[in-house]
Structure formats: structure tokens, C-alpha cells
Amino acid sequence: MGGWGTGPTIFIESIRNALIFNSTIPSSDEPTARSPASTQLLFGYSPSDLIVPSIVLLVCAALAYFVYRRSQEASSSSASSKKSKKTSRKANESLLNEASIVNQMSVVGIDFGNLNTVVAVARNRGIDVITNEVSNRSTPSLVSFGEKQRYLGESAKTQEISNFKSTVAGLKRLIGRSFEDPDVLALEQKFVNCKLVEGERGDVAAHVTYQNESRTFSMTQVAAMFFGQVKDFTSKEIKTQCTDVVLSCPGWFSDRQRRAMLDAAEISGLNVLRIMNDLTASALGYGITKTDLPDQSLDEKVKPRTVVFVDMGNSSYQVSVVQFVKGKLTVKSTAYDRNLGGRDFDEVIVDHYVTEFNKKYKMDIRANPKALFRLRQGVEKVKKILSANSVTMLNIECLLDDKDVSAEVHRAEFLEWIKPLMARLKGPLDQAMADAGISTADVDFVELVGGSTRLAAVKEFLGEYFQGPKGENKISTTLNLDEAVARGCALQCAMISPVFKVREFTVQDWNHYPISLSWDAALVPATKTGEAGVSHMEAFGIGNAIPSNKGLTLTRKLPEAELAENNGHVKFEVEAKYDAAAKTRGLPHVPQDWIGKFTITGIKKLSGDPNAAGDGIAKATIKVKARLDANNLIVVDGAQQIEEVLVAEEPEKKDDAAMETDDKPKEVSAAQLAASGGGPPTKMKRVTRKHDLRIVVLTAGASRELVKEWHALEGEMNATDRLVIDTAEKRNQLEEYVYYAREKLDMAWSDFITDADRTTFSSELNEMEDWLYGDGEDATKSVFVEKLSALKKKGDPVAARYLQADERPRAEKLFREFANNVLINLSAEDDRYSHIAPADLEKVKKETNDKLKWLNDSISKVNDQPKHVNPVVTVEQINLERDSLMYFVNPILNKPKPAPKVEEKPAEEAAAETDNLGNTKEAATEEGKKEEQNMDVD
Ligand SMILES: Nc1ncnc2c1ncn2[C@@H]1O[C@H](COP(=O)(O)OP(=O)(O)OP(=O)(O)O)[C@@H](O)[C@H]1O
Ligand SMILES: [Mg+2]
């Protein structure tokens, strides 16, 4: 994480996240691990070089960007001198504009919500939440499958009732969930209108009707469809392709769920730079905007600021205790109730009115899923109103059997009904406090996130829970509770992006589920004779910092028979699993608690390995590098076989040898010497050699082949959607033209077409209208295009004649004005053209009169023509003739007058005529001449 500071610096102007991207590129001796080439490329310029054309800079920055993308997974490094930072900032100030163009490449944060998805982007030196295609700041997380196309986001919302069984909700809840998870049918199905079934790989899938066929799509695919829509409207809004994003997810998401999100993003064409826990994103947005955080560089003992973040959205309840010091946030604990959110509060009201309406109106709402859904919608509105009012009405028209229902709902009774839910708020808070090792007295502020924290009861409860000794309310409202997560993600994206310079801020997250690594005990030598070898170890326990690295040293037996069977090479499988304790911390069902398998291959018997001499069975020492990465995913990305050999020390080559070894040279005994082959008594040293091993990774994510297949299918469906949309557009154009032409034929165009043609054209338009609503309903795009062009072939000449007649008077007027002006000027009785040869003036006069005659003749011919015939002279020809007259006349008439002859005067007299500004009268005359020359005859 330390390396993040090498990215952009954001200086906070105000609490609303107005950020100034002060500097864009790190200094040359402060390389960013993610973009080493960008550093070199852009810092090849000295300050004086900064006048280099902006295009060069853009190319460099773009190159840097691509290099960064390739090195995205590289680890960060940040150590550098303060002096060099200063120099780099200075040098970069002038690069701001160029860099900010590159910045628009795509720095996007997505809060993928169960109900609503919010998108924020870094731009205009700040973070903006963007609006979707219908100008809403949040987009329903829905996908609907229609007869011809899919409807995504907002358009899916409008289909939700009419296309009830093929509209999929709960994408976030169901992505990466196994169908055998008991929650799926018992809890989630009731909030999703389509049927949930088991898909490939045992995942949850949606069963829908698409293009009149029964289809099953995995939730990863459905989420990918939705992400595609988010990508489209974001790209339109930022006017560049949206690719790089930071995505949020609840902190309780398992490895399997996170990987499914990554797969979905990949299918949709998004490149996820990081998956960030909802509350960590909110905490980042909070911390980076605070300029008054305790500064431990000034006083090591200063107490960090402790803030508890509480998120209650539509489906879950999350608590996170975070401590802030200047430049860093550390998550100290997290706790969740992953099945407590706004929808559960709706459900208690639903339960009540299902019973009440059954009694009152004799209707079985539960037997009718559509009616139940509409009741849920009505109830949600009621719940929101009760957050600010003590009483409201629940009214639903034609709920069932054409019966309207209504009821008066009081906040007091609502509070009574939700008591069991309210009782569940305390548990996660207590757990978070205990895990962080603090009491509520240590909490400085409580920040709320998520729509359901608007519930008055929830706010009140939290206020009381954290109440200070003097009754102070610690609830603070610094964050925008609907947008904090998306903003935090966009900030994180800006921090990772190499083209932004963001204020240095380190984020250290907290591991919620303990993870172990395990292997086959039979392959590992026993520590004591008769005991089994160790088969597992806790690699990342509860509270382990995220990200973090672990190095493991394992010993594997190398039985001769196994070596012989496998060409002298054997493998060693290490599996990552959740520990049993993860279940008690709310881990969603994960088959066999399995996370991944890492098969280390190419292990062989090494001749110099001292283990070979032990109990007769050779042993290999393997070092494995495991990581809990910033996405909260286990990565095993390095394994080496260690070989220890004794070599004779060569003092003169000591430095070289040291470079290849880990251990300091050791003196060895004569016995050891003898064991190593004997020889003359000389100083020996133990040398460690490392041999890289291959790792084959198997995770809970979809296989590469499956992701590719889904990606291709998504491309096809997307192309179909586009074709359907384009076809509808062409159909609309044809329909519009039919109405437009019919109206024009009756009015403006009526004189410009013969009566007979008008009658035929009108009836053709009528026939086309009938066809559009009949056989043409399902016509293809090309048929609509053909039909429109056939109609236009008839209509366009009429429209053109009408336009000619409409514009001709103006063209004629301009022509006459110019010609008449010329003639008037020529006949003026002054000396304005005295300097022009009379023959030239005569030519001008003749040309003007000739052109005027042409105009008169043409106009009179046109006037003699019937209007339904194409005019003999067009407006364009009239304008051309006027232009040609101007080109002839102007050069002659605008010829400058020669300067009047000035009599030579004695020097004193000339000096006396100098005005008090120092200008001579002659100079003034020159000015006058210039002005004259500039006059045009027009
Ligand atoms: N004024 C209000 N009073 C009570 N509840 C509200 C109010 N406004 C919104 N909500 C509830 O907030 C929930 C939506 O919040 P939000 O948009 O944060 O959820 P989400 O992010 O989509 O869901 P999740 O975080 O669970 O994935 C809904 O259940 C909605 O009824
Ligand atoms: Mg949310």
C-alpha cells in the first residue's frame, strides 16, 4: 500500500470533495511500481522542455497509461527523497492540462448495490457522481429479458411488472452463490420475481424467457449484462471508453463472490483495478477529505481518530471500526448481519398487510406473486414516509381481483412490528467493539452510509448506542449516505491510476474470515517419530491486515518410487480454505469452505540437498509466497525449491558469492567435509540455491474457457440489442416521415406537386402507415431503410422545389442590393473613383448591368413556370452569379487612392506640426489612407 503515494495527489478544497489534481507524474527517482515507464517518459523533460507540443505529451502520457496497465499487478514501492518530490512537483505543474486530458481516460468507482448502483468519476479536479441515460444519479440493479431484446437498468425497471417472470433482481445477492446455499431459496427467492435454478458449476442461475425461448443465465452473466449497461452510460457521460474501474462489494463477500464479480466485469469489458469493501471505500472518502486528522509524525503518542462506519442499504447491515491518523486509515474490526436491510423492514409491513387485507378484503395476496410485489412496492413508499412522518396512507389500486386496498399506517405500530429487526442491530456493533478492543467511549464519530440509515428508528438506536457520557450524539453526517461508497471507489481508482496525483493516503483493511492453507500430511515428514506430519496452518487469521504477505517453508518427502513414476519430478498441492470460525462470522455457504488449490510442480531431488542424507528418504524444502491481496483474495504467486550445498570458500570472490546466497558462510566440521566428499582441509561455506517452481492455480472463479464463452455470448446478445434498438429507430424515422410528408402535402408542399402526383403520394403514405401497424410491425432494419428511401425519392424533389421558392426572394434581394449599390456608387458625382481608369469603371458598369439583366430574365422565367416544375434557375446559381460579380467588381473599385503629394517643408515647420502625442500630421494622413483602403463596396 505504501506505493499508493507515488500516484496522484489530491488537495482537498472543501468537504464536497472538490479536489485539485496538483501534480500528475512522480519524479524520476520516485518510481511508481505500476507505471515505471510513465515516470521515465514524462520526466525526460526538464522544465524548459515543457513547451514541447502538447501532442507529444499526450502521446507520452497515453503510452505511460498502457505500460501501467501491463504492470498493474506489480507491487508498489515508494521510498524516495523529499527533495526529489519537490522537484517533481515543480516540474509537473505545467503539465497539468495535458495530464488532465489523459485523466479523463476512465477513473470510475462503482457502488454495485442490491437495489441501486451509483457511479462516480474523477474529473474536473474532483469526484462527480454521474447520471445515467435518464438523468438519475442511481440506476436500478435490474436486468429484464424481452421478446426481442434485453432491458438493462432503468429500462428493466419500467418492465418490472409487465415482464414479471423474466426480470431479474438481486444480482448482487446472488452472484457467486452456490445453488445449494440454503439462503438462496429460503431467503433470496422471495425478493426475485424470476425462478432461481441451478446453473453450470452449481451456481445460482436465473430462469427466464428470452426471445420466446426458455433460457438460463448464471448470475455472473446477468451481472455482466448489467455492468455492460453501466459501462455504456458511463462512457457516454465521460466521453471516453469506460474500462478501468474500482468496484465495491460488502465486506462479508467470500472469495467465490468476489471472483464472480471479477468474472462478470471481465465479461462486460470492464477492467477492475480493485474490489473494495463498501465501508473501506466510504472510510477512504472520509479520511482523505479531513485535514485535521491526528498527525503521528509530530507526536507518536497522539491518539488516532476512531470512527465507526455503519452501512444499512437494501439487503445488509455492515459495521466497521476505523482509526485515522494523518495520511492513513486502519480498519480495526468489521462485523455484519448480511440479512438485515431495508427490504427486511419492508417485509414486516408486508406480512402485516397480507394478513390484514386477507381479513378485510378476502384476498390471498401470497398466492399471487404480482400482487405481492405491488404490495411490497407500496409498502416501501410507506416506510420512507414514516421516516419523517408519524402517520401515512397505504393505497394500492387494483391490487387483486380489481380491488383497491388502503390502510392508515402509524409510525408507532411500525416501530412495534420492527422490534425483532431492531434487536439485531446491537450484535454486530458489540462484536465490532470487542474485536477492535475499544468501548463506545473511545469512538469519536459515527458515520452513516446506505439508504436504510434514514430510518428514524435506526438513527435513534445508533445515537443511543454511541451516546457520550454527557448525552452527546456522535452521529455525524459528513458523508453523502447514497454516494459515499461510489465516491470512495472513484478516489481509490484515481489513486491507482498513474496519471492522477492524489494526496498520499494509505488504506489498511481487516481480514474478516480466517483462512488456512492445507496439504496432504502423508507427504510431509513427521516432526517426531510416530506422529503424522503437519497438514495445515492458519495463513491469514481474523484481523490480519489487508493487503499482506506470508512466506511459508514446507518440507515434502521425495519417495524414490514416486520420483521414478513421474520422470523425476513431483508436485505438491496446497489448498486454501476458510477455517471453521469463518462460519460463525457469517460466511455465506461456500462448498467445502474451499477457496483455491495451488499445485506446485517440478519438485525434484537435488544432489546437493543435505536432506537427502537423513532418514533414507529424500526431502525437498519448498518456500511458498502467499498473499492476501488488496481485493481480499488469496494469491500464491511464488514457490521455490531450496537447495543447500557446501562449497569451498573463495575469499576473492566473496562479494559475488554473497549475491547468490541468503546465508552467511559457515565453517564446517571435518566430518561434514568428509560427508561432502572429502578433499583437502579448506574453509567451506553453506550456500543456499533457489530454484523457481511452477504453480498451477485453481480458484472458485469460472474457468478461462467459460469466461470466454460467456464473453462471446454477451457480445452476441449485445449486438442483438443494438440491432433491435437501431431497427426501432429506423422504424420511427419512417413513421415520422409518413406523418411529416402527409402534413406538408396538405399545406406547404401542395403547390409544388401536381394534383395527380399528390393524390398518389398521399395514398402511398396512407398505405405505409397501415403497413407500419400491420405487416411491418416485425420488419427488419433494412426493410425500413428501403421504404423510407423510396418515399423520400418522391418527397424530396417536392420539398426541394418548396425550399427553392422559399429561399429565392432572399437570394434575389441580396443580388440586387449589391448590383444597385455598385451602380449608385459609380454614378456619384464626387472624386471617389477619380484614381481609377475610366475604362475599368466602364467595365464594372457593363458587367453589373449584364448580371442584373441575367437575374431579371431568370426570375421572370421562373415566375412563368408552374410551381410543380423544377425551377430553371436555382438559388445556388443566383448566389454563384452574385459571387462572380463581386469578384469582378471589388478588386477594381477597392483600388487604393495614391497618397496626395506633400510639399517639402523646412525642418522647423515640420517639427511645429507635430501634435502633442508625438504624431506628425503626415502620420495621421497615412492612418486615414489605411482606413480608406479598408472600405469595401458592398
Ligand atoms: N427515507 C428512507 N427511509 C427509510 N428507508 C429508506 C429511505 N430511503 C431509502 N430507504 C431504503 O434504503 C434502501 C436502499 O438503500 P441503498 O441504495 O443504500 O441500497 P443498496 O446499496 O442498493 O443495497 P445494498 O447496500 O444492500 O446492496 C431501500 O431498502 C430503501 O427502501
Ligand atoms: Mg449499498
UniProtKB/TrEMBL annotation:
<dbReference type="InterPro" id="IPR013126">
    <property type="entry name" value="Hsp_70_fam"/>
</dbReference>
<feature type="compositionally biased region" description="Basic and acidic residues">
    <location>
        <begin position="923"/>
        <end position="938"/>
    </location>
</feature>
<dbReference type="GO" id="GO:0005829">
    <property type="term" value="C:cytosol"/>
</dbReference>
<dbReference type="InterPro" id="IPR043129">
    <property type="entry name" value="ATPase_NBD"/>
</dbReference>
<keyword id="KW-0547">Nucleotide-binding</keyword>
<dbReference type="Pfam" id="PF00012">
    <property type="entry name" value="HSP70"/>
</dbReference>
<feature type="compositionally biased region" description="Basic and acidic residues">
    <location>
        <begin position="652"/>
        <end position="667"/>
    </location>
</feature>
<dbReference type="GO" id="GO:0140662">
    <property type="term" value="F:ATP-dependent protein folding chaperone"/>
</dbReference>
<feature type="region of interest" description="Disordered">
    <location>
        <begin position="652"/>
        <end position="685"/>
    </location>
</feature>
<feature type="region of interest" description="Disordered">
    <location>
        <begin position="896"/>
        <end position="938"/>
    </location>
</feature>
<keyword id="KW-0067">ATP-binding</keyword>
<dbReference type="GO" id="GO:0005524">
    <property type="term" value="F:ATP binding"/>
</dbReference>
<protein>
    <submittedName>
        <fullName>Uncharacterized protein</fullName>
    </submittedName>
</protein>
<dbReference type="InterPro" id="IPR029048">
    <property type="entry name" value="HSP70_C_sf"/>
</dbReference>
<dbReference type="InterPro" id="IPR029047">
    <property type="entry name" value="HSP70_peptide-bd_sf"/>
</dbReference>
<dbReference type="GO" id="GO:0005634">
    <property type="term" value="C:nucleus"/>
</dbReference>
